[in-house]
């Protein structure tokens, strides 16, 4: 029995804010402002004052209105900053989405790659127990603190998704590989214990290490993961119809196209320009947009790359 | 091929300026992820080495001199 997508539902705001009109923009340094102007993000999606848990719960409720399933498992990809400490964001989602029959838990510590990891974990949990029928995965993107510009990485937008993995769903999750490297665990951090939340500021320990070491490790890791995923599925590279990845900067698409000799679908860049970086939601939004476009046929293969500066890498092959 | 001269040619082509053997590439601000990728791919193709794991440390790529040393070490290890 194959495992695939049941339904995907993305929640995005009507309000799009030009990057240069962000409240923090005037206070940015020269390099930070130059980066924000040139990173390929024109506007960002904004849900003013929304909490991650509320957004994720809304995405789940709206998905269940479209597709009334009773998921066995509710898996939340952890937000950048939890709404509560000690309490449970995912159990808030369970409560507000009235998912009383589901077991709720969080996948965390993987940054953007968390959604891809959730796909693989969801598939494995369905395969492990024939009694389970569906897994609901959700995530909301909100900035860690008040600031959205993450120099030298990206600019954060708001949004949320919910999606189900079900037996017999399509596209089918044909193959998946992922890897982590703990050496990068502290490349980025926010000192949240010494400062109030509105002063939280992301600190990159070494922009050069980010631009060079992590980029080069991504080169090695993603090449191997792509080769392994295609080998696992018995699919030749020329049978991949298109490739999706997370939306970080416009130059990142060039980097990965050069790196892997794969063509990244232009809708990724369109979503980046319009919404900014939505963290673990990016690849789900891109996959949803691709499926909605109707440009692919049954049997086509879609490769999804995902990585984060944690560092984590994931490659997934979907068959329509 | 002389490694330092080859590297100098590559860097001049890519950055439109010459580089001293001990000059810090990263301090110059020219190193983007794409540039770093091109540099490593150039080394692998030009000198038949494979750069992986701990060898991808930024300090191995900070100067022409250090890159040259890395390539020699990798070639010696492979032979």
UniProtKB/TrEMBL annotation, chain A:
* Xref: InterPro entries: Thiolase-like
Q: Which SUPFAM superfamilies match?
A: Thiolase-like
GO function term, MF aspect, one: acyltransferase activity
What is the name of the protein in this document? Answer: 3-oxoacyl-ACP synthase
Please tell me the species this chain comes from: Umezawaea endophytica
UniProtKB/TrEMBL annotation, chain B:
Q: Which domain of life is it from?
A: Bacteria
**What is the protein's name according to its record?**
Acyl carrier protein
Q: Name one Pfam family in it.
A: PP-binding
Where the record annotates domain Carrier, the positions are 20-70
InterPro entries tied to this protein: ACP-like_sf, PP-bd_ACP
């Amino acid at each position: 029995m194959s495992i695939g997508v049941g339904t995907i539902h993305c929640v995005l705001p009507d309000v799009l804010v030009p990057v240069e009109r962000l409240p923090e923009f005037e206070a940015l340094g020269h390099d930070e402002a130059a980066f924000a102007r040139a990173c390929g993000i024109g506007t960002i999606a904004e849900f003013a004052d929304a909490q991650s848990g509320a957004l994720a719960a809304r995405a789940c409720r709206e998905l269940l209105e479209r597709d009334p399933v009773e998921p066995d498992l509710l898996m939340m990809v952890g937000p950048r900053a939890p709404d509560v400490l000690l309490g449970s964001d995912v159990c808030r989602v369970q409560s507000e989405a009235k998912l009383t029959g589901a077991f709720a838990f969080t996948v965390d510590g993987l940054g953007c790659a968390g959604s891809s990891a959730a796909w693989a974990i969801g598939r494995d949990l369905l395969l492990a127990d024939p009694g389970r029928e569906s897994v609901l995965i959700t995530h909301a993107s909100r900035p860690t603190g008040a600031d959205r510009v993450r120099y030298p990485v990206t600019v954060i937008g708001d949004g949320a998704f919910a999606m189900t993995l079900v037996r017999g769903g399509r596209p089918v999750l044909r193959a998946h590989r992922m890897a982590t490297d703990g050496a990068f665990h502290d490349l980025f951090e926010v000192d949240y214990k010494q400062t109030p939340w509105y002063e939280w500021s992301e600190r990159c320990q070494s922009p050069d290490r980010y631009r060079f070491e992590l980029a080069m490790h991504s080169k090695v890791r993603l090449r191997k993961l792509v080769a392994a995923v295609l080998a696992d599925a018995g699919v030749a590279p020329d049978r991949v119809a298109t490739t999706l990845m997370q939306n970080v900067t416009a130059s990142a698409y060039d980097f990965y196209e050069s790196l892997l000799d794969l063509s990244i679908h232009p809708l990724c860049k369109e979503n980046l320009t319009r919404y900014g970086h939505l963290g673990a939601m990016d690849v789900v939004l891109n996959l949803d947009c691709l499926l909605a476009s109707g440009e692919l046929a049954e049997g086509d293969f879609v490769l999804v790359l995902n990585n984060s500066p944690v560092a984590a890498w994931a490659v997934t092959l979907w068959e329509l | 091929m002389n490694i330092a001269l080859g590297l100098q040619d590559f860097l001049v082509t890519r950055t439109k300026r010459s580089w001293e053997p001990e000059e810090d590439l990263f301090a110059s601000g020219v190193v983007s992820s794409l540039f770093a990728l091109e540099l490593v791919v150039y080394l692998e193709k030009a000198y038949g080495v494979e750069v992986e794991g701990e060898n991808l440390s930024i300090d191995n790529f900070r100067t022409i001199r250090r890159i040259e040393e890395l390539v020699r070490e990798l070639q010696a290890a492979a032979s």
